[in-house]
Amino acid sequence: MKHLSEEEIVLHYYGDADDEMKVRQHLAECSACRAEFDRLHSLLGRVAPVEVPEPGSFFEEKMWLNIRDRLPEKAVPAKPLWAAGKWALAGVMAMLLVGAFLAGRFWPGRSPQVVQVNTPAADPQRVVLVAVGDHLERSQMLLVEIMNASDKSVLDEGTQLQARDLLNTNRLYRVSAQQAGDPRIAHLLDQLGRVLAEVANAPSQVSDNDLRDIRARIQSDGLLFKVRVVGSEVNSRVRRLEQNSPAAAEQRL
Amino acid sequence: MQVTDAAVVAQVLAGDRDAFRVLVERHSRSLYHLVYRMTGSSADTEEIVQDTLLRAFKGLEKFELRSNFGTWIYRIATNRTLDFLKSKKMSDTQAYRIAEDPDPDDSREIQLAATAPGPDRMVISEQMKSRMAQALSLLTPAERVAFTMRHMEGRSIGEISKTLNLKTSAAKNSVFRAVHKLRQQLEPFASPAK
Question: What's the mean pLDDT in A18-31?
Fold first, then answer.
């Protein structure tokens, strides 16, 4: 009697043999091959799937934030201002922002009319919203990092500097939102500011308890969720403004 | 009612880049599980998942709306992992090791399943552990991926051959060669189950 090959036995274990019927019949008749199959079955039956550690409740958020800026533009007819680079944009926006806030009349809640300008880049209302959206997004990334970190080392000097930087701009936006009569954003920025201050002012040698406290604060008010929702709304408003801009209308023509 | 993946893809293709977030939220975690089983490293896995998502976005126009987006992106992830494993020679020490209680953070540990409770549990000697690590490190990237897909993910030979762009016979052969190598290394040290 010709015995089954090792390959036939292995493939039969997974139900992948070319002629399953033939293999089954042979195993029923041949004790040597059956013993061989049993040995294989015993060994492979013990190699369980690798246990995968869950990557944390904000994993999806983290993935999105990490890839979002790297996604190529699609279906965008004209190259927008912010394609020039995130940091260059931040600088330009900061300058425009100060001017816009000093004027105190460009917040969207106050001037629902479309500003009559020729290019999207010159629309201060949009610039302000883009700046706020960018601020919320950067804050969101920081909060996600803190929530996802495996240990307290996340609260290192770099993170604290980042939090300090965000805290400074946060103050400016919060005051502006209050003055512009946008209490929802002002309230959110107030909550965000308290967490940023905690991160920025954490001791140089943070303890596990410090990290736990900061995480608890982030979670207690659903801060991350609110930042995400308001950020998304702000981005939608930016898109609407872009679509209604004279430049976009010209392009449609 | 939940919007289908295909509808979201259509939305992204129509210019709504942010709609891609929905797909990221729906599929990132299962991709993580898949890739981790092949790499055993959280950091490498996150990198591959990100790369997979980016590639999926860039190649979205090639996706056929009638197909299953989950299957499509699963294939991208598997191939990205295969490329990664090919490019990175995993040393024996970086590769898998057997653990009774796997470290949840960035481990490359594989666990032998208990087929029976209590004293019937297979006794894993130190020698056996090192043999398993050695056996897995002996697999080629293609064998490792094929073995993971077949043995750990329960994917069919048809799926493996389609994902890795292999003939059915080559996919079967990859699985067989992986098992053959594992047996050679482990069988002399594994006591039979009771």
Answer: 92
**Exposure string for A201-215, b = 16+ CB within 10 A, e = fewer:** ebeeebeeebbeebe
Three-state SS at B169: helix
**Given phi > 0 = left and psi -120 to 50 = alpha, else beta, which region is A98?**
alpha
Contacts of B41 in chain A (CB under 8 A): none
Please check whether the domain covering B1-88 is classified as CATH 1.20.1050.10.
Answer: no
Regarding pTM above 0.80, the answer is no
In angstroms, the separation between the Cα of residue A83 and the nearest Cα of chain B is 14
Please report residues of A whose CB lies closer than 8 A to that of B20: 71
* Nearest-neighbour CA in chain A from B35: distance (Å): 10
DSSP string covering A87-153, please?
HHHHHHHHHHHHHHHHHT---TTT--SPP--SSGGG-HHHHHHHHHHHHHHHHHHHHHHHHH-SSGG
Q: Considering only CA atoms, which of A186, A147, A190, A140 is closest in space to residue A163?
A: A140
User: Would you say the ipTM is above 0.90?
Assistant: no
Q: Do A53 and B107 touch (CB under 8 A)?
A: yes
**C-alpha span between A116 and A100 (Å, rounded):** 15
Q: Do B176 and A10 touch (CB under 8 A)?
A: yes
Dihedrals phi, psi of A248, to nearest 5 degrees:
-65, -40
CB A218 within 8 A of CB A224: yes
Task: Give B169-184 pLDDT, tens digit per residue.
Answer: 999 999 999 999 988 8
Distance CA A108, CA A36 (A): 76
CATH number for domain B92-194, candidates 3.50.50.60, 3.40.50.720, 1.10.10.10, 2.30.29.30: 1.10.10.10
pLDDT in tens, B76-108: 999 999 999 888 754 444 445 444 454 555 445
